[in-house]
Each structure stands twice: as C-alpha cells, then as structure tokens.
Design goal:
The complex is a heterodimer of chains A (370) and B (357). Chain A is of the alpha/beta class and 370 residues long. Chain A contains 16 helices and eleven strands. Chain A folds into two domains: 126 residues, HypD, alpha/beta domain 1 (Rossmann fold, 3-Layer(aba) Sandwich), CATH 3.40.50; 151 residues, Rossmann fold. In chain A, the strands form two sheets. Chain A has a six-stranded mixed beta sheet with strand order 4-3-5-6-11-10, with helices on both faces. In chain A, strands 2-1-7-8-9 form a five-stranded parallel beta sheet. The longest helix of chain A has 16 residues. Chain B is an alpha+beta fold and 357 residues long. Chain B folds into two domains: 166 residues, PurM-like, N-terminal domain (60s Ribosomal Protein L30, Chain: A), CATH 3.30.1330.10; 168 residues, Phosphoribosyl-aminoimidazole Synthetase, Chain A, domain 2. Chain B has a seven-stranded mixed beta sheet. The radius of gyration of chain B is 21 Å and the shape is globular. Classes of the chains: A alpha/beta (370), B alpha+beta (357). At the A-B interface, helix 1, helix 2 and helix 15 of A face helix 9, strand 12 and strand 13 of B.
C-alpha cells in the first residue's frame, strides 16, 4: 500500500530504534495524546522494543472514552423513548452508560445503527421523513468537519428530522489539563497527527511556552511513532522545548483552513466534561445558536438524572498518564472488555483495552488475587 | 480473493437452471404449512433441482447406510445481506457444513437442508439460492437427502435462515485432534485472510464502500482429502477460521493445549485490496471472518512439502506457513509484528466494531 508500507518498513524502524538508543542517556516520560497512537504502539509491539529509559504514558485522546456518561444515557433515551434512529460510530456502541450500553439498548429493540459517515445519517433522514434521525457526533477536531458538514447539508436540504448529539472535545485544553495536574510527570508530548491535519500546529506554541515541554506532531504508523519519539528525546536530551512536525506529509502549520471554516460555521467552543476527568474549560464544541434546530440537546427535552461515574474506575488517572492500566486493581479481573467498568476498557483506542488485548498482562493479572 | 469469474459462474448457473413458471412470485405463510402450498412449492422444481435417490422418496427422513467412523456436524446461516459479492446464503450454507466435516478429516457425503423463510421473500431470490445450493453440492460431491421448509410472519425473520447438517465418512488416514499438537508443529493457512468478511462488510447497510472484493466462499474438502491422502497423520489439526477469524482459532488452540503459538505478521497473506479496506474501517484481518480458507497444524518436518503441494492446487496459491507451535508462553499467541515487535493476540470479544478515527 503506497504511503503506508513505507512507514512499516522493518529496516527503517530498526534504524530509528538504534538512533533512540544512542540518543537517550536518562529516563524520560513521554505521553502520546491520541488513543490511535496508543493502539499502534501496543499493536506493533513498539513498547517492548523501546529502551527502558523511555516511559510512554497514554493520554486522554480516545474520544469514545471521554464521552460523558450522561450523554450516552441521553443517546439511549432518544432512541428508546423518543423513537429516534440513533446513528453512531461503531466503537461507541459497547461503552457503558449508567444503566446499559447502546449495544444493549439495540438488542432490546432501540433503532441504533452503526455508520461510518454522518452524511449517511443525513441520507437516512431523507429516507425516513417520518422519523427523527440523531447522529451521535463524537470525536476530536478530526471528526468535527464532517459532523459540521452534515448539519450544513441537512440545513440545505431543508430537513427537519435530523440533529446531532455533539460530544466534541479538543486536544490543546486536554494537554493543558494534564500538565496542570500536580501528579503529572509528563516531560514531552506526541501530538495527534490527524487532529493537526485539520487544526494545524499553531495552537501548540503557547503550550510549549508555558509548560516548557517538547510537543512533536506525530503520525500513526510504526516508523512515524519511532521518529516522533526520537525527535522528542533529542529535544529533551538537549534541554529544548519546541513544536516540531514529524507528520509533515499531512500536516501544515495552518492546518486545513477550509475544514476549520466549516467547523466554526456550525460549532463554537464551550466548557466540556471529560468522562473520568473533570469539566475542562473551553475544551469542546457545541452547536451554535444559528443551528439550534439541528442540536439534539436543544431539540429534545431530555430530563434524566445525571448519574455519577463508577467509583471503581480510575480512568481519569490512566488518561492523565498518572497510572498505567495494569496498575488498576480491577484490570483483567472485575473489568474486562466483556464486563467493562470504564470506557477505556471498551474502545479499540482505549489504553486499558489496548493493554488487555495485546500485552498479555491479563493472564498475569488473573493469576494474582484481587 | 474471489476470482473475477465468480460472477460469470453465477450467470451460467442461472441460465442453466431457469426458474419454472409459477402462479406465485413471493413466498407466503402457506408455503410453510406442510399442506398443498408446500407441496406445490417443493414440486415446482425444488425436488428436481436437488434430485437424488433419497430425496426422491419424499419421506420424512433419509435412511442411510453408513460405514466406519462418521463425522456429524450442524450449522445455521443467518448472513445479511443474503446476496453478497461473490455468492449468496445458499452456497454458504453448503460450503460451511461441508468444510466443517472436512476439518474433522471427513469426506462429506450427506446434508440435511432446512429453511426458515420470512414471508414475502421473492420466489426468484429463493430460486437463486436453491440453484447456488445445487452447484455447491455438486462441487463438494454431497447430496441433500432430507430437509424442511418453514415460513414465519413478516418481521419475524430476516428474509431467509438456513440450517444444514452434514454427515461424512472419516478419511482412513485422518487423525485430527487438538491433543496431537506439539511444539515444533507449523501453522499453515491455505489462502488469503479476511476476504469473505470484508466482502460482506462492503455491502452492509451504512458501511457500504466501493470495492471489487468478492467472497471466497467455497468447499475445501477436495483439497483436504488430497492432503490427507498424502500426509495422513502428519496433519495434526484442521480448523476453519470463520467467525472470530484466525486470531480467535489460534487463541483457542493455545488455551486448549497450553502450548504457545508464535505468528509472524509478515507471512500472513492478505489481499492488498482487502488489507486496504481493513485499514480504512479500522479492522484487524486476523479477526475478520473467513470462508474459503483453512488452518492446518502439521508436523514441522513436512510443513514445506504440504505448502508446496497446496500451492499447486486451485485457490491455495497463497498457502504459507504463518507460525509455529512453541513451548514458551503457554496458552498464549504471540505475534511478531512487521517491524519485529511482539504482542499478544487474544480472542475476539463480541463483534468487531469499526472504530472512529
């Protein structure tokens, strides 16, 4: 596959590994913000290849994991009680709400459908003029343009039966929250390449200034990650802290202005609750007043109690990189992908799920009594 | 992956077996009543299509003469959509059970065939499914000797469900048991992974994407028979990595034997287009369902010979050794990634769901 196989080249990967080993002289803690990167690090066995001085910790960049409990409850409510066709990306389905997951609601008869694109949901709304169609618009900056476009598209078509349940979160405020946590010991970041494809790299400069940490915009393939880690280590070793772009084949400094324009046409920045963490100021998108009729939160009166998160889950500490998944007493025992306590155990991008599936630590966890 | 001629084959099948003229064009509840309408449906051409001595008796069951050790298996087919690129539910139902028998080291002989049809299924679609069944049976060399047809109300089914049960005579040289697996055995796949699963995925509502990927559903019993003829007891286990994919089958084997399995990612054959589709949808080919391929765990010393022999056979050109049974990491499958890293391969949990980004 062009533009993919090159970044999985074993010889190149080995060269970067050697370079990392040569460069590193003392321990460093680096966070990859994005769950896709966590997944790739574990799936390709990179964590086991890195020198032990490098401690990779896994960030909050799994949109499914940070979608608040009450929004999942609301999505289920819309499908069950309002008879809406609730459309969602696939890996949202297994994430537990306070009572059940979307998948369980689907099994009990709610009309919940897996889609790849919000534009498919608009098509569904056209095909079912007698039904309300709600798209569960989850994601970071990456999925925001397509979700915004679906609203614009529905508006152009004059549809009055389409809306989105927006749960968009933003990367830079998350990095800020991680760094502000007293327990945080992160010394460098790999920023998410695809987020920067849309948003560019400019918003990371103030963070580098303020926290004096290197931020390297990095891709997702093994060679990308190794190169990103090398660039971060080089900065750390030489005492530098700047924004660098490893993923230059996709990311321009200004990002994709056309996509940003579409985002800001429909969305505005707002405070948002991150599941397992807290409300982070100005860390998400909500639908603008001008498009209120396409905002499921405003369109449907949903009065359901907000249930607190399961106290057994330490997702917050894991997503801030304070704890590793296997340090949770419930990992692989009470909490597994079949019976998840928290979202990071469910999503394919969740750190707990990545460790559960690929690290073999589950068997070790099972052998030790809880 | 499915050869381009799959479609031509289907056209030929339909041409050679045109649907008889009938006074109904959809299946209704009455067609499953057991009464006059059922008879009219079956006598309209169904019996003729699948004709053999046992079926011609029109009896409640088939009276068979079995010799020696016998393998017996059953499977139900609920695939959606019922027509997919490269095939339909009919041939899948035959090939699935035929292949399950073959995985026991048996030579498939007889099938039962039961339909649960949702009322309203167009007769033409039912006919096309029957024709596919007929040809799949001919290719595999099995006979449908008994069957049943039920019709359920609209909304109580999903167009058509099929159950097939199969009987086969064990190959005299077969000795296929999990307990025969030992360290040093090699793991062979007969062809490219994930083709069937991705063909189905490409036409699932809401996930449609443009591709020419076709299902590789086919019978593998003749290939297995040829391998057993030549290598007999050197073949320790045969498995059909359908749902849950190759990863789940191997994780099961590792757990059952408490031996380790080591896989080499760079040797795992995946068609380029199938691989790209998996990348886009965020699916791992190791977990995607397969139809037309099988896994053979064989004595280490004969592995290369087995592969060479397989590669000379149609649809096994991509056969290769993908891994080995080892004494280390008991109960675990460890994959050496393309760049040389290691990771554990665990069983599929629930259904593989496409990811966000």
């Amino acid at each position: 596959m062009k533009f993919l196989s090159e970044y999985r080249d074993p010889a190149l990967a080995r060269r970067y590994l050697e370079e990392i080993k040569k460069t590193v002289t003392r321990p460093w803690t680096i966070m990859e913000v994005c769950g896709g990167q966590t997944h790739s690090l574990v799936k390709n066995g990179i964590l086991s290849m890195l020198p032990e001085e490098i401690n990779m910790v896994h960030g909050p960049g799994c949109p499914v994991c940070v979608t608040p409990l009450h929004l999942i409850d609301k999505a289920i409510y819309l499908a069950e009680e309002k008879g809406a066709i609730l459309c969602s990306f696939g890996d949202m389905l297994r994430v537990p709400g306070s009572q059940k997951s979307l998948l369980e609601a689907k099994a009990k008869g709610a009309d919940i459908r897996i889609l790849y694109s919000p534009l498919e949901a608009v098509k569904l709304a056209q095909q079912h003029p007698d039904r309300q169609v709600v798209f569960f618009a989850v994601g970071f900056e990456t999925t925001a343009p397509a979700n915004a476009l679906s609203v614009i598209h529905a508006h152009r078509l004059g549809l009055n039966n389409y809306s989105i349940l927006a749960s968009h979160v933003l990367v830079p405020p998350a990095i800020e929250a991680v760094m502000e946590d007293e327990e945080s010991h992160i010394q460098g970041f790999l920023a998410a390449g695809h987020v920067c494809t849309i948003m560019g790299t400019l918003e990371y400069y103030p963070l580098v200034e303020r926290f004096k940490v290197p931020i390297v915009v990095t891709g997702f393939e093994p060679v990308d990650l190794l190169q990103g880690i090398l660039m971060t280590v080089k900065q750390l070793e030489s005492g530098e802290a700047k924004v660098e772009n490893q993923y230059a084949r996709m990311v321009r400094e200004e990002g994709n202005p056309r996509a940003q324009e579409i985002i800001y046409q429909v969305f505005e920045v707002t405070d948002r609750l991150w599941r397992g963490m807290e409300v982070i100021p100005m860390s998400g998108y909500q639908v603008k007043e001008a498009f209120a009729e396409y905002d499921a939160m405003r369109k449907f009166k949903v009065n359901i109690p907000e249930v607190p998160e399961n106290e057994d889950c330490m997702a917050g500490e894991i997503m801030k990189g304070i704890k590793k998944p296997y340090e949770c007493p419930h990992f692989g025992k009470k909490c597994s992908p079949e019976t998840p306590i928290g979202a990071p155990m469910v999503s394919s991008e969740g750190a707990c799920a990545a460790y559960y599936h690929f690290s073999g630590m589950v068997n070790q966890a099972k052998e030790q009594p809880a | 992956m499915g050869v381009a001629s799959n479609n031509d084959k289907k056209i030929q099948m339909r041409l050679s077996c045109p649907m008889p003229k009938l006074d109904f064009d959809v299946i209704t509840l009455g067609h499953g009543s057991g009464g006059l309408l059922t008879h009219r449906l079956l006598n309209s051409g169904v019996f003729d299509l699948l004709k053999n001595d046992w079926l011609d008796e029109h009896h409640d069951g088939a009276m068979l003469k079995l010799e020696g050790q016998t393998a017996f298996t059953s499977d139900s087919f609920v695939v959606s959509p019922i027509f997919f690129p490269g095939g339909n539910i009919g041939e899948l139902a035959v090939n699935g059970t035929v292949n399950d028998l073959a995985m026991c080291g048996a030579i498939p002989q007889f099938l039962s065939l039961s339909f649960i049809i949702e009322e309203g299924l167009p007769m033409q679609e039912f006919w096309d499914i029957l024709v596919a069944i007929k040809f799949a049976c001919e290719q595999a060399g099995v006979q449908v000797v008994t069957g049943d047809t039920k019709v359920v109300e609209r909304g109580k089914g999903d167009k058509i469900f099929i159950n097939t049960t199969g009987i086969g005579r064990l190959h005299p040289r077969a000795n296929i048991h999990t307990s025969r697996i030992k360290a040093g055995d090699k793991i062979i796949v007969s062809g490219e992974l994930a083709t069937h699963g991705m063909a189905i995925m490409s036409v699932r509502e809401g996930l449609e994407f443009e591709t020419t990927i076709e299902s590789d559903t086919r019978n593998v019993n003749h290939i297995v028979q040829a391998l057993l003829d030549e290598f007999g007891p050197a073949i320790h286990l045969l498995r059909d990595p359908t749902r849950g994919g190759v990863a789940t089958v191997l994780a099961e084997i590792a757990q059952d034997t408490q031996l380790g399995v080591e896989l080499s990612q760079q040797h795992i054959p995946v068609d380029e287009q199938v691989g790209s589709a998996c990348e886009i949808l965020g699916l791992d080919p190791l977990y995607v369902a397969n139809e037309g391929i099988f896994i053979a765990i064989v004595e280490g010393e004969v592995a290369e010979e087995v592969v060479e022999k397989m590669r000379l056979m149609a649809h096994c050109e991509q056969a290769c050794v993908i891994g080995e049974v080892v004494e280390g990491h008991p109960g675990q499958v460890v994959l050496i990634s393309g760049i040389g890293g290691k990771r554990v391969v665990s069983m599929l949990v629930g259904e593989q769901l496409p990811r966000i980004c």
